[in-house]
């Protein structure tokens, strides 16, 4: 409530601000105290709003918090205790879950890490190369290729997955990490090309022109000017690639069928199938282990995540 | 700022021609060109061809014309999965966007703790696509799950939500609504771009908060609403992981959670009916493409561009 604070606003009002929503008889005779009453009302409103937002946030996060709490409870209690505080802390779900499958859970974590690292490297390199061409070079058919690139962002993977499977099985790449990594080295995550094109366009052209006068070619401009100045865009790409690849299920389910090649999501899914409903505790424990890397990426990369989705509109 | 605006703008931008970049372009675009040919465009063409064949991966594909496509509409499981998917998409996406917009409006403009609230509401959309959250959902909405334990406190006897054909899809929709954080962040960015002076001018003219919302915020936000709508619809049509994990991989109970892509997976990689799966994939592309075109056409009547 600041409508009385600036002179221009009060000047337009012929009458003093009305107190219409106060019951009759309670109005204050001394004008000086009026703003104070209004401040109190605004403050109460703001406190209520914060209380509502906090309560809503708590309800939203409750399932997650409850999963964490339940992972420390014996199975029998998971089905009886909707509360968050475990009566006694029990780590056996974690040790049981870690060794419940054919390989210890660390094996699947390492597999996921390999796929993620390969994808990271691939996306950062190939997408920034392509983005440089679209942002800084003139060549025949540029607009057409750019449109093709944009449209490929929207292409559902299902339209290409069957022939990809045929191709990769003829190359004998099924049950290797190659079908998951090689496409990233070939800039098929076109979304990140777009993200970097947007960023590169914001870098002043005077810098490249100065470098050109000094005799630098495009490769040097890309390496020594664009990449160092694009760290925020590279960080956004890295974090999204990390989270998406870590969570990816569909393509890993299709290309990895041998237990020693399983990544974390596939291992978790097998865990559900093999234990059914009998051991929620260890299932929860391993689910939490699988979410921790994403959560860490979220904590440290928030700035880039928010910037990334705000400027390009992604998940 | 967005892919969509970029597409509609690309007609206009003509850059001055310079000579001599061709070879460099080939160098910088080489990985992308190879990927486009071998991983995207080539397989696209191949799957279009396969959609007209009978193909089981083991023997050579056999041309059968439009039979896969006509079989689809005689296949009750296909028709059902189409219904399930449309229900899922057209119920959960509007709810998700309404939640996103509502919260973004509440969080607007430098309020205390904005960054913290934004993080808390955004976190579920980062985790929501994972197998782990789908596992959690399966427990929460199970017969002895968290939801029923909470209901029991209020004396309500719940049931196994994920194992009841009438409710199982609802739990998946709830999961989609739960991940409203990403569109919310986009709305927040959009709200920040509305010039403050519009509101100042309106309040000088005595416009109420509601009037300001109707006359300033909403019209200026329509491009963002449109953008979120297109994006979330496309994404929701492709939901897979949650249906797979919550139903145990079969779309049950009684096919009530058989989302389109799950059925496609079961056909292609379960029963190795790859021709049929390819036809389904192309039909999906047709649905998504058609829906997006309709969205763009309809946007002329309700989306307001300031420039």
Could you characterize the architecture of this molecule?
Chain A is mostly helical. Chain A is 70% helix and 0% strand. The longest helix of chain A has 37 residues, at 34-70. Chain B has a single domain, classed as MetI-like (MetI-like fold). Chain B is an all-alpha fold and 307 residues long. Chain B has a two-stranded antiparallel sheet with strand order 1-2. In chain B, helix 4 (76-106) runs antiparallel to helix 11 (209-237). The model of chain B is unreliable at 11-17 (pLDDT under 50). The chains are: A mainly alpha (315), B mainly alpha (307). At the A-B interface, helix 1, helix 2, helix 5, helix 6 and helix 7 of A face helix 1, helix 2, helix 5, helix 6 and helix 7 of B.
Secondary-structure map:
The complex is a heterodimer of chains A (315) and B (307).
Chain A lengths: L6 H6 L21 H37 L4 H4 L13 H7 L6 H32 L5 H13 L3 H13 L7 H8 L4 H12 L3 H9 L4 H12 L1 H17 L2 H6 L8 H12 L4 H33 L3
Chain B lengths: L2 H7 L12 H29 L2 E2 L7 E2 L3 H8 L1 H31 L7 H14 L3 H10 L5 H8 L14 H11 L2 H12 L3 H9 L4 H29 L3 H6 L13 H11 L3 H29 L5
Antiparallel strand pairs in B: 1-2
Mean pLDDT of chain A: 85
- Total strand count of chain A, please? 0
In this structure, how is the largest beta sheet of chain B organized?
2 strands, antiparallel
CATH topology of the domain at 106-312 in chain A: MetI-like fold
* Chain pair forming the biggest interface: A-B, 102 and 106 residues
Q: Give the proportion of residues in helices of chain A.
A: over 70%
Count the E strands of chain B: 2
CATH class of chain B: Mainly Alpha
